[in-house]
Amino acid sequence: MSDVALPVTAGIAVIKPKLSRDDRIMRGFIVMVGVWMVIAVLLPLYFMLSKSAEDHDGNFIGLANFQEYFSTPALFYSIENSFFIAIVSTIITITLAFQFAYALTRSTMPGKGLFKTIALIPILAPSLLPAISFVYFFGQQGIIKELLLGNEIYGPIGIIMGEVFYTFPHALMILITALSTADGRLYEAALSLRASRVKIFFTVTLPGIKYGLISAVFVVFTLVITDFGIPKVIGGQFNVLATDIYKQVIGQQNFEMGAVVSVVLLIPAVLAFIVDRIVQRKQVALLTARAVPYEAKPARGFDTVMFVYSAIIGFLILAILGMAIYASFVTFWPYNMAFSLNNYDFDVMDGGGWDSFSNSITMALYTAVIGTTIIFTGAYMVEKAKGFGAVRGSIQFLCILPMAVPGMVLGLAYIFFFNHPDNPLNFIYGTMAILVICTITHFYTVSHMTAMTALKQMDPEFEAVSASLKVPFFKTFIQVTVPVCLPAILDISIYLFVNAMTTVSAVIFLYSTETNLASVAALNMDDAGDVAPAAAMCVMIVFVSATVRIFHAIFTRGMARRSQLWRQR
Amino acid sequence: MSDTNEPYLQIRGVTKMFGDFTALKDVSLEIFEGEFVCFLGPSGCGKTTLLRAIAGLDIQTSGSVEQGGKDISNLPPSERDFGIVFQSYALFPNLSISRNVGYGLENRKAPKAEINARVSELLELVGMPEQGEKYPAQLSGGQQQRVALARALATKPGLLLLDEPLSALDAKVRVHLRHEIKQLQHKLGVTTIMVTHDQEEALTMADRIVVMNEGSIDQVGTPLEIYRRPTSPFVADFVGTMNFLKATVTTSDSIRIGDADIGLESALDDMATGSSVTVCIRPEDVIVRDIESETDNIIDTVVVDLEFLGSFYRAMLKLNDQKGSILLADFSINLVRDIGIEEGKSIQVCLPARRLRIFSDSEGEP
Amino acid sequence: MFIKMKSFKISKLIATTAALAFVASVGFKAHAETLTVYTAVEAEDLKKYASRFNEDHPDIEIKWVRDSTGIVTAKLLAEKNNPKADIVWGLAATSLMLLGNEGMLEPYSPKGVEKLDPKFRDSANPTSWTGMDAWVASICVNTVEAAKYSLPTPTKWRDLLNPVYKGHVIMPNPNSSGTGFLDVSSWLQLFGEGGGWTFMDGLHENIARYTHSGSKPCKLAASGEIPIGISFAFRGAKSKAKGAPLDIIIPEEGIGWDMEATAIIKGTPNMKAAMTLADWSISRKANEMYNEGYAVVAMPGVAKAVEFFPPEVATKMIDNDFAWAAQNRKRILAEWQGRYDSKSDPK
Ligand SMILES: Nc1ncnc2c1ncn2[C@@H]1O[C@H](COP(=O)(O)OP(=O)(O)O)[C@@H](O)[C@H]1O
Ligand SMILES: [Mg+2]
């Protein structure tokens, strides 16, 4: 204690607050979340980084692997390919999604709710689904392959089309939020100055959603550059970083080179993540200053154009989904177009059979229940605990870190860490547990931020009141916090469930024969040439995700009715 | 108010740092059993910080807090004895009013019937019988405040802490509730600390007021003491309306404002002749009636503005000094009519010696 | 009240599920007589293999770990210090020889090993591996698609160098597929090292893309996604049986082949059960079972003609030097990867 730092209290004893039982429990939990993050993110990443600097026998060889990487054109060409795909897909997705979001927020066209629901469908599907559909549209036996004017669907064209479908809803949600928080007063001012629609767009709309737009760009960019399913199915000989990791690891068991490619892929993902964080912070500042919401006014010509546009996009999305469903029922495309359930006879296919489907549901349930419990409770402790500033700060950071780690990289890092013979946690390798841990971690950040947002809306003094009434915090947590945050909690569990059903990238390295998953089975069936069964498995995944979503919607509505007495929403 | 000399709450040398920022500087204070004390001061002066230190919600960096003779300086809130009401009320939105009020009792494993009886009693006490089945969102702000109060009182705490409990309410309800809270406190005799930035609230409710400024206590006293005898220009300015006039010390018991000599009630200590001082007087203490030439402390002024404020007029009087200082004075409607005060008219006023407060200029401007 | 009950139930539910999850995830191996069997046998046959075996040995449960040949091989190599497999049943003999060179196989002569064709068993005594069936390369041609592009039907490997086939041929990547590797190794043996690579350089010009698995080229040809797939005969016969317009071509120069074989992994804790399976795997009953899909099996005199399977297969099989292939596998694959792994690779 230096006199300089504390002039007033110089020489006076600083009070060391006694910790209550609540404080100790909270800190214990925070430490547990920290341990989870260290085990589930930091250590695996560390093992992966060190693997990239080792030779096959585990000797440290510095950057030699990277040297080899950058002197092998077959490998480093993928960097250019990945960026090319990511940039082009991002531009197309953002353009399409922006117009769609614009139609939803700035027009008075009919059917907005329906359009929005349709536009969010791709979230329910594994990323393989659009790729498989495109094979049936544009492959050699595709029904409209002429539209490609002789170009191959297997390659960049197919990848980009698939990525646009897959990332569209993600961009859309961000852009809708950005557009609907715009300040109506600015538009009134602009209109009173007789500015044209175009002028208003460039002087008011665009600057107003600047941060949302940037955020959407980086989210889409990251999703594309880290995606594995689409290039795997439809990439042909067009190699990208994510498929290279797979080829190195699964195809050739060259783990060291897999680690090198992972590091290469990690860099753009981390950079995009950092930019997105900075932008998000600014966006929040902008939001709080906002006041009057914008109300769209009917304008016949404009509304018609927007309706037609939305109808086209909606139709395309449904067509892509519909093609996968249709193809899954066709007995033997194109020679026997009769409908049958043959493709659903997964047990006779290379892949994993119906077991993988039930495994996926089990995995998704565990992920949703355990993940929601850990993530929400963890967020609560980090938000509400007293003192412990440095630890809380670093755990807060660790909780948003997983977003920067691509699924392929996380999965590979798990092999290095959990399959290490000296790791006492080695026993979870090859079990359902590692899949659940990996999936929870992979999707931790978004869930954590959802939980934080909900918690920040709670009165910060609930815990103080409880303490003054000598009620332990966990009672208040269960009796008040959880019921009040139930909508957010359900959102988190649905998010985790659906993602657990559809994810491929992280778990592709971690499943075992007993824990094969539906999405992985779809990938492997496609790999073995059983494209229609792969489509069928994707359809089953969509079916489960959609069912769960619908139940969620019904339940949420019912809950809203029951709690409307006290919920002011 | 009990007359034992042992204070119920004893705060000694409390300092609170937020990083490098000192929010409380060496604050000491004694509060006696059954007292109603208000912490008064502008926003950001550290009132809440002091209240939270007393509650253990944000424990002070150094210094001690004793409650009922027990050192509670480092205890967490759950090991202290207090009930608290926040500006936001912090009612549990998903629990009925009854369950909110009975929240602290449920945990004490009291029999259900006992809890129900106590809850009804409390709701009765705060004037809200039969509302127990409703939810907070169905109540008005004032009603929510009463529920929060009932909840805080349910466990019969030795100390009741209120942080700006009325500031979220509209003016009428606020005035009404002031009265009710004060009466309730009187009836229960619970030692109460209320934080407020509203001087009127403090003056009407408190037994004693603690005026705070920039992390320190400026003055502690009864409302009348604070109003009549502010011990610093800050307090003088913060509580009520006050005139601040520049003056020079002429003798040990007189000063000069412009060309008027003003006599004082008692001798000035430590102020050298010729040093400049600030004279404070409240507008309602300025006298115009019955002024004769032999009256002391007369000063010539010109009425530059006359503002009608409902029950009285507030006059802006320009003094005859170089700076043309302005003196505010409140005159009754009768008086204005009787004497014929109007804008532009020259009048003589008297600044009665016993109503003057003198601060040397080294004490700083308000 | 309702709210309270609900929140209580939810918390209890969460706690219970979390507890269950933990127990479930840690997991217990229930059966003592369980064999972990690594295999590259086609998935649709696995159930049949296991149930036929269980007809005779109901007390031994088979736990399959299936993947394509390259991956199973790599997986076994990766687990060298900490083997997870008890026995391998149905993996390319070249791969097993590779494992043998690494000292990973337990020498054991299954009962009746002398009844097998000597070509189909390890020459050492006791044997380290025993063969099951031969697995031969072939070209799957979709006649409908070929006609559409007016492609002549190839009869020789070298025919595939004809520029008319540009973009119409698919073959498996030998790095991940056993079929791919037996193709490459047979070309190197047929045409010599230099001639083999020259042939592949030319073929590469016509290849639309390389696939991860060995069965995919034939399946893609069957579904018309590509006119010509270099794959293996067994797959072609199966697809043809399903009604695909396929011709299964056995190139005149001769065809690469490998055999599927069985070997016990050294250090298995379930040696007795593994021996039981190894014995059964060379039994007459087993060979008859293999013959349901494969025309050439290890036990002489068992084989009957297989539907849609080209009859001339047995005569066209090259005199495969497995030892050479196993020894040079790594080098060949590295060379192949450097030459062809990426279409964007500047030539
Ligand atoms: N948790 C905190 N961290 C940093 N500064 C704080 C914190 N709480 C209060 N302060 C600062 O301490 C000062 C006193 O705050 P407070 O006690 O809330 O004032 P008030 O008198 O309005 O209740 C303010 O300047 C405030 O910004
Ligand atoms: Mg305050």
Task: Looking at this protein, list some descriptive labels.
heterotrimer, A: 569 residues, mainly alpha, MetI-like fold, two-stranded antiparallel ribbon, C: 347 residues, alpha/beta, D-Maltodextrin-Binding Protein, domain 2, 2 domains, ten-stranded mixed beta sheet, 12 helices, 10 strands, binds adenosine-5'-diphosphate, binds magnesium ion
Query: How much helical structure, as a percent, in the residues of chain B?
Result: 10-25%
Largest interface: A-C, 62 and 70 residues
| Order of the strands making up the biggest sheet of chain B | 6-7-8-3-9-10
Instruction: Say how many strands of chain B there are.
Output: 19
> Structural class, from secondary structure content of chain A?
mainly alpha
Which stretches of chain B are poorly predicted, pLDDT < 50 over at least 5 residues? none
Q: Which sequence of strands runs across the widest sheet of chain A?
A: 1-2
Structural class of chain B: alpha+beta
Mean pLDDT of chain A: 88
Shape field of chain B: elongated
CATH architecture of the largest domain in chain A: Orthogonal Bundle
Describe the 3D structure.
The complex is a heterotrimer of chains A (569), B (366) and C (347). With 569 residues, chain A is mainly alpha-helical. In chain A, 69% of the residues lie in helices and 1% in strands. Chain A has helices at 21-51, 64-70, 73-106, 112-119, 128-138, 156-180, 184-192, 197-208, 210-226, 229-234, 241-251, 255-288, 300-329, 353-384, 389-400, 407-418, 432-442, 444-456, 462-468, 473-484, 486-502, 518-527, 531-562, and strands spanning 330-332, 336-339. In chain A, strands 1-2 form a two-stranded antiparallel sheet. By secondary structure, chain B is of the alpha+beta class. Chain B contains ten helices and 19 strands. In chain B, strands 6-7-8-3-9-10 form a six-stranded mixed β-sheet, sandwiched between helices. In chain B, helix 4 packs across helix 5. Chain B is elongated, with a radius of gyration of 25 Å. Chain C has two domains: 31-134 and 258-309, D-Maltodextrin-Binding Protein, domain 2 (3-Layer(aba) Sandwich); 135-257 and 322-340, Periplasmic binding protein-like II (D-Maltodextrin-Binding Protein, domain 2). Chain C has twelve helices and ten strands. Chain C has helices at residues 2-26, 43-56, 69-78, 93-101, 143-148, 178-206, 216-222, 233-241, 271-281, 284-291, 313-316, 322-340; strands at residues 34-39, 61-66, 87-92, 105-106, 130-142, 169-172, 207-211, 228-232, 246-249, 257-265. In chain C, helix 4 (93-101) packs across helix 12 (322-340) and helix 6 packs across helix 12. The radius of gyration of chain C is 23 Å and the shape is globular. Residues 1-31 and 343-347 of chain C have low confidence and may be disordered. Chains in contact: A-B, A-C. Magnesium ion binds at residues 47-48, 164, 195 of chain B.
